[in-house]
Write a structure and sequence with these properties.
Distance between the termini: 63 Å
Largest sheet: none
Strand content: under 5%
Radius of gyration: 25 Å
Number of strands: 0
Order of helices and strands: HH
Structural class: mainly alpha
Helix content: 40-55%
Length: 66
């Protein structure tokens, strides 16, 4: 009688094989730099010339207090 492998094991093997095949065509993944915050010009970036509102100052104090 035949013993069939687990479907998950087969799926993992197929995924590894496709990843290896893709690496042959595009090369290994480059090292990714860690994120440090919003990009320059992002809408969530703070403007240095605009003072914080009272609410923002309170939130900064709360975050710094931990």
């Amino acid at each position: 009688m035949w013993h069939l492998p687990c479907p998950r094991a087969v799926g993992r093997a197929i995924c590894r094989a496709l990843s290896t095949l893709g690496t042959l065509y595009i090369g290994p993944h480059p090292e990714v730099e860690p994120l440090t915050g919003p990009a320059p010009g992002h809408p969530e970036r703070l403007c240095a010339d605009v003072p914080l509102t009272p609410l923002e100052r309170r939130l900064v104090r709360e975050l710094e207090a931990g």
